[in-house]
Specification:
This protein is an all-alpha fold. The chain is 91% helix and 0% strand.
């Protein structure tokens, strides 16, 4: 396989590099919305957990468990 690539003209190698890079970008573009959605869900869960209301509810549950 190495010999086949070495014998290709540079213009073909550059074309294959551009196609490869384009495929990489296409893959990233389709994956990035899923990653950003997951990070958004995690961030919102952390923000909700940190609210005063949730913290009061958690403290109330801890106090009831101790009594």
């Amino acid at each position: 396989m190495k010999h086949a690539v070495e014998n290709l003209p540079d213009s073909i190698k550059h074309l294959l590099d551009v196609l490869s890079f384009t495929a990489l970008l296409g893959g990233l573009i389709s994956v990035l919305p899923h990653i950003s959605m997951l990070l958004t869900v995690i961030w919102m869960a952390i923000r909700i957990y940190e609210t005063d209301t949730v913290q009061k509810l958690l403290r109330r549950d801890e106090e009831e468990g101790e009594a």
